[in-house]
Design brief:
EC 4.3.2.7; about 40% strand; glutathione specific gamma-glutamylcyclotransferase activity; five-stranded antiparallel β-sheet; Hypothetical upf0131 protein ytfp; globular; glutathione-specific gamma-glutamylcyclotransferase; ChaC; single chain; GGCT-like; alpha+beta
Length: about 180
Amino acid sequence: MWVFGYGSLIWHPGFPVAERRIARAAGWHRSFCMRSIHHRGTEAEPGLVLALDRAAGAICDGVAFRVAPGAEAQTLADLRDRELISSAYLEVTLPVTAEGAPIDCLAYVIDPAHVQYCGGLALEEQAQIIAQAVGGRGPNRDYLWNTAAHLAELGIADAELEWLADRVREIGRIREIGS
């Protein structure tokens, strides 16, 4: 069993991993296009979390994780508890290319018909939301910074995430000065 990670799964898979490979999903892009009302925000003040959003010609580089043998059933149950909390994600089998080889991975992609979908938000609006939102798993900014840092460690460039990480830090400094 393989799982494709493009956001928090990269730095916190939450299951036993037998193997990791840098992988690419064609036709999808990583995007803060899902309002988070549980993990990184609340219903009153939603945050934003990453999702795979379908886009012609797009690519998303991430990590394909091979689940440790014998842990597949528990991993699937745990991922469903974590990722399908509000049904904004769809569980799919996603073909990726990892080190030149095709692999079918379990992945969670955004349902563009779901009420939590918010594709197309301007980067500045995303930064303002991420800078202030807090949910059950902590500040939204930590989620962004952890993802950006781990992508950089893996040598995966993502210009939008890098811009957002810098802008959210800047917003934090401005708020500190203003207090």
